[in-house]
From TrEMBL, chains A, B:
GO molecular function list: DNA binding; DNA-binding transcription factor activity
InterPro entries: Cro/C1-type_HTH, Lambda_DNA-bd_dom_sf, RmlC-like_jellyroll, RmlC_Cupin_sf, TransReg_Diox_bact_type
GO CC terms: cytosol
Lineage, uppermost ranks: Bacteria, Bacillati, Actinomycetota, Actinomycetes, Micromonosporales
PANTHER family: HTH-TYPE TRANSCRIPTIONAL REGULATOR, METHYLPHOSPHONATE SYNTHASE
UniProt xrefs under Pfam families: HTH_3
Protein name, as recorded: Transcriptional regulator
Coiled coil spans: none
Organism annotation: Micromonospora endophytica
DNA sequence: TACTGCTGTTCCGTAAACGGAACGATCGAG
DNA sequence: CTCGATCGTTCCGTTTACGGAACAGCAGTA
């Protein structure tokens, strides 16, 4: 999977300031309520500091919003994006002999996406709900239409691409077998 | 709104460790890939450090998961909870003369919930989709069934409660007028 | 056995995030 | 105008998160 969208420190500061001003409370007051220094909050809002998880939580808690409200653009789901693939992590199952990660993914038509190889033993399982997907090992990709299911060993570079001009909707199950 | 669910530092560490071990890579290797010290990662996984947003992001980026995957229990939506009310922030609009926060909320039957007063000028607008809601100023609450809409000034303590034994589904729009 | 390479933890000096105090600016009251 | 209060920023000493090195423990090899 490609790297997640970055939480820009200056954008985080801007969102904190916007939420604070919306509530009509001063920087000094919020710092007092959240029990952090005014210098800390000032630096955070101006993007000149690299806040600790603890301080950021203390502030968002006082603003009455979840941490995600300042980390990302509100409404934006916690997404893992690439050029063509847009996936969001739904669940993680920690079984006794493997870990499973369940993603809901959408693949835009027109562009391919190459993912690097995973650890040996890791497998990917895709179920297509809409569109036509071409995915699998880079040297031998498979094709699946709505309702179809694909699986491949992902210890080699693999690709994702939408066939035709319809966006592909699918679920991706990543299976990481436990090391013995 | 009540405080969000807390991101327990030890739980964050446990989730990072679980994700790392699922991928079958060592602590040393992940530290090298993420360009952080081994001591940093070790302390983070064991919950003895209070990580910076920057370091936490560098690590989750290498694991290929969004920040939220380690902050909260996977699958748990970024929710703002209280005894009876379960709300998730959907959107924030920064208009020229006001800020709007849109929540989707569910209210469990049986228990009431009291919210403290907001800033003067703040108004709440609730649209009920299912169930019967009793909400508004603590001294004069209003009642609304599915399809109804409520509004009140929230500069006084206010309550939320489900009437009957059906769960209430509704949207809540909080309006913070801009200071002149 | 000793050696090599790796694991994860601990020690330590440095860099920086922290809270508190001091600062100039702005506002309203007298 | 002066006073007092509060605003947000800046300075500063303390605390602590940081990266690198040293460490013990364990596997595989000669």
């Amino acid at each position: 999977m490609p790297p997640p969208s970055e939480p820009d420190p200056t954008a985080v500061g801007r969102r904190v300031r916007a939420l604070r001003e919306a509530r009509g409370i001063s920087l000094s007051a919020l710092a007092r309520l959240a029990q952090v220094g005014k210098a800390t909050l000032s630096g955070l809002e101006n993007g000149t500091r690299n806040p600790t998880l603890e301080t950021l939580y203390a502030i968002t808690a006082q603003l009455g919003v979840p941490l995600t409200a300042v980390l990302f653009e509100p409404g934006a789901e916690p997404t893992v994006r690439g050029a063509a693939v847009n996936a969001i992590l739904l669940e993680v199952f920690n079984d006794s002999d493997a870990t499973y990660e369940l993603y809901r993914m959408r693949i835009a038509p027109g562009t391919d996406q190459l993912s690097p190889a995973h650890q040996a033993g890791v497998t990917e399982h895709v179920t297509v709900f809409a569109g036509v997907l071409r995915a699998g090992p880079a040297d031998a990709p498979l094709t699946a239409a709505a309702g179809d299911h694909l699986r491949w060993a992902s210890d080699v570079p693999h690709v994702y691409a939408a066939v035709g001009d319809e966006e592909v909707a699918a679920t991706l199950l990543l299976r990481y077998p436990r090391k013995p």
